Amino acid sequence: MYRHKQFEKKILTFRKINTYGAINHEKTRFAGGSVANWLGTMGIIGAMVIFFVFSFAGSFVTDVDEAAMILKFIGTSLPAIIVLTSLLGLIGGIGLLSYQKWARVIVMVIAAIGCLAFPLGTVVGIYSLWVLMQDETIKLFT
Asked: Is residue 43, in this structure, part of any structural domain at all?
């Protein structure tokens, strides 16, 4: 009936939405996993930019030892924290896409932490928490 198997799979997934307008948790799982992967990747890239900016700024501060030490501390600890949370989000997103039980918990923790990043992190975090706490989503990961 359809020319490509992948297109046929998308159509069949789209038809899973019931007549009451309920959420298709298969699609939200994919969206949640994709968003977690995207944010994880962007976080790692952002951490690299922060590291290089602080390293570059530290090269100009050579005569004041305290300032150089503070720039070095911030320039290494902040990217390390960002990379850690981004890697957890990336691992959780991959786990969500493969229906792993542990992935739901990891992404919920990362989403709760992401709520602190106002305004975009708050919106994405609340949406992720809302989707992952739905009964239908919980059934997908049991």
From this structure: yes
